[in-house]
Specification:
about 30% strand, about 60 residues, single chain, two-stranded antiparallel sheet, alpha+beta, 2 strands, elongated, 2 helices
């Protein structure tokens, strides 16, 4: 039983580390976490790139 709990904790640590990595690298956008049956199954990040209209206007 102890091994199963340590595997869950290890997986949770991996998931949290990946969420932190995605948050550190994104400047504008979102990070979406998909959960099924109480477990994280997918992470998706979307980064937005916008340009100021006044900079591009001639």
């Amino acid at each position: 039983m102890g091994t199963h709990r340590s595997e869950i904790n290890s997986t949770l640590d991996d998931v949290l580390a990946e969420i932190k990595r995605q948050l550190v690298h994104i400047r504008y956008g979102s990070v979406e976490i998909q959960i099924h049956n109480g477990q994280v199954v997918q992470l998706e990040s979307r980064e937005k790139k916008r340009w100021d209209k006044s900079v591009n206007a001639k």
